[in-house]
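SEQUENCE AND FOLD
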Amino acid sequence: MHATMATDKNRDNELILVDGLDRQVGTATKWQAHTDGLLHRAFSVVLVREGERGLELLLSQRALGKYHSGGLWANSCCSHPRAGERTIDAAYRRVREELGCEATGLREVASFAYRAEFANGLSEHEYDHVLVGDFAGTLAPDPQEVSDTRWVGVDELALALAREPRQFCVWAPMVLSLALQHLD
C-alpha cells in the first residue's frame, strides 16, 4: 500500500501544512503528511446535475490501489492543492485529472477539520474545503484514482449514508451533508 503513494507521479507531492485556522505554516511531502498525521489543506468537490431524479450528486468510488480507503465511496473528487496553488484552481484541475470532465461554477460552501487513522498506519489530518459546482462534459475517470462513479438523488444518498455507512470514506458523510445544506 505505501508504495502506491510513494510513486504517485509527483503530482500533489508538496502539501500545504496549516494551523487550526487554515493559515499556512509550512509544507511537507504527501508521504510525510500522511505518515506523521500533519494537518494539511485539502478539498472535497461535490458535482451536481439535474437528472432523472431531480437534483443528483456524483459519487466516486476510490480505486482499490489508493493508499487508504480503496473501494469506498466518496464525494465526486478529493485532493490537495499544491504548494503555491489556490484551492479553487486545484479543485478545477483535479476534477479534470481524476474524472476527465469539467466542473463549472465551483464555490466553497463550508470547511472543517478532521483526523482519521487507518489500519495501514497512515492517517488523514485535513482542513477540508467543501466545494460545490455543476457537472459538465462526459465522465472519463482515471482508473488509478476512481474505480467507479454513480449519480444519486438526494433521497437515495440519505438512505445509502444511513443504511451503508461503512461503504463510504470517513469524510464523505460530513462533506455530503455540508454540500446538501447549500443546494437549492
Remarks:
- Helices lie at 2-6, 30-36, 87-99, 154-163, 172-181.
- The longest strand covers residues 102-117.
